[in-house]
């Protein structure tokens, strides 16, 4: 083998080594510091022409859902409370758009639990009832003592476990 070929191979291996080192540092940085959250400004309202009259519109009417029976409304949770774990005592109101649980800063409740995934589970409303769904997490989500494999309905008193954090659904 010529001296030139050996030098080119050595330089190629050196470049591959540095690419590997930088990729490892990038992965470690992402794991240690998480994703970067960017603050976004409020969107600006569109400008209206100054002299154009604005027509008054009646407020939109929303259909009123039928009232549930008293027994059924007692079984529908309205808050999620952390009973065990680093966030014990934290209470979160369930909102119709759903609640996302995990370690990512984009989650509604950010968990400080090494066994939780970035986007671990979500609690959402469907047809007037609340459901919990595991979002393909590494360690799983448990409803009571059962591991979730599909979205399951939850009621007042149900307990969820994500890693070492335990939640209870309350009225």
In short:
This protein is an alpha+beta fold and 171 residues long. The chain has helices at 3-33, 70-74; strands at residues 79-84, 91-93, 99-102, 109-110, 121-126, 129-134, 142-143, 146-147, 152-154, 159-162, 165-170. The chain has two helices and eleven strands.
Annotate the secondary structure layout.
Elements: H1 3-33, H2 70-74, E1 79-84, E2 91-93, E3 99-102, E4 109-110, E5 121-126, E6 129-134, E7 142-143, E8 146-147, E9 152-154, E10 159-162, E11 165-170
Parallel strand pairs: 3-4
Antiparallel strand pairs: 1-2, 1-11, 3-5, 5-6, 6-9, 7-8, 7-10, 10-11
Structure, explained:
With 171 residues, the chain is an alpha+beta fold. The longest helix is centred in the N-terminal third of the chain and has 31 residues, at 3-33. 21% of the residues lie in helices and 26% in strands. β5 (121-126) and β6 (129-134) form a beta hairpin. The protein has a 6-stranded antiparallel sheet, with no helix packed on it. It has a 5-stranded mixed sheet with strand order 4-3-5-6-9, with no helix packed on it. The chain has 2 helices and 11 strands. The protein has helices at 3-33, 70-74, and strands at 79-84, 91-93, 99-102, 109-110, 121-126, 129-134, 142-143, 146-147, 152-154, 159-162, 165-170.
């Amino acid at each position: 083998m010529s001296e030139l070929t050996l030098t080119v191979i050595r330089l190629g291996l050196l470049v591959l080594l540095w690419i590997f080192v930088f990729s490892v540092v990038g992965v470690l940085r992402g794991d240690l510091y998480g994703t970067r959250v960017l603050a976004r400004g409020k969107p600006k309202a569109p400008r209206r022409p100054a002299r154009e009259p604005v027509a008054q519109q009646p407020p939109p009417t929303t259909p009123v859902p039928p009232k549930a029976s008293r027994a059924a409304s007692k079984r529908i949770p309205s808050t999620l409370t952390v009973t065990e774990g680093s966030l014990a005592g934290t209470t979160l109101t369930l909102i119709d758009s759903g609640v996302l649980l995990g370690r990512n800063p984009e989650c509604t409740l950010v968990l400080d639990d090494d066994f939780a995934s970035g986007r671990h589970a979500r609690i959402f409303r469907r047809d007037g009832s609340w459901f919990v769904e595991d979002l393909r997490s590494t360690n799983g989500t448990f409803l009571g003592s059962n591991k979730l494999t599909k979205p399951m309905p939850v009621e007042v008193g149900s307990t969820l476990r994500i890693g070492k954090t335990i939640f209870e659904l309350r009225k």
